[in-house]
Write a structure and sequence with these properties.
single chain, about 150 residues, 2 domains, alpha+beta, 6-stranded antiparallel beta barrel
């Protein structure tokens, strides 16, 4: 399901017989687009059925991950308006679908971002992006994937 960086780098940039410039005509643009669309690693870019793999709703709300001794993990977060004030919602983490690191604005201490992001499948079928802020260790629910 996941492609390696070396697999992506080995994929030919252009179809056989094409030289620079790649896009002199509309037909050549179409041929290049079809070539890239047939890349096996590109077709696996979003393994979420029916969705585009993008975050549909961004939250950035505080969350907590509870790990049990038996290996199960739960996402804990405050309920919205539909729950009693101060109550928590707990959902079991079924599995981690993807993970990556986001680093940005490292040159500015106030705006810098350094986090590990996990795309997880929760019991009930919801897919969410959960971030572990570094170095604070705080968890944030970044968004719900469509």
């Amino acid at each position: 399901m996941l492609a390696t960086v070396s697999e992506i780098h080995r994929y030919p940039v252009r179809p056989p017989g094409f030289e620079e410039p790649l896009f002199p005509t509309a037909e050549s643009r179409r041929t290049i687009a079809e070539h890239l669309a047939s890349a096996p690693w590109l077709s696996r870019g979003s393994g979420l059925p029916g969705g585009n793999g993008q975050t549909a709703r961004r939250c950035g709300e505080p969350a907590h991950v509870l790990r049990r001794a038996d290996g199960r993990a739960y996402l804990m977060r405050r309920c919205g308006k539909e729950c009693r004030k101060g109550s928590l919602r707990k959902r079991r983490v079924v599995r981690v679908l993807e993970r990556w690191r986001e680093v940005g604005s490292w040159w500015d201490a106030e705006l810098s971002v350094d986090r590990l992001v996990f795309r997880i499948l929760l019991a009930g079928g919801a897919v969410v992006d959960l971030a572990l802020e570094r170095p604070s260790g705080e968890w944030l629910l970044m968004g719900v994937v469509d």
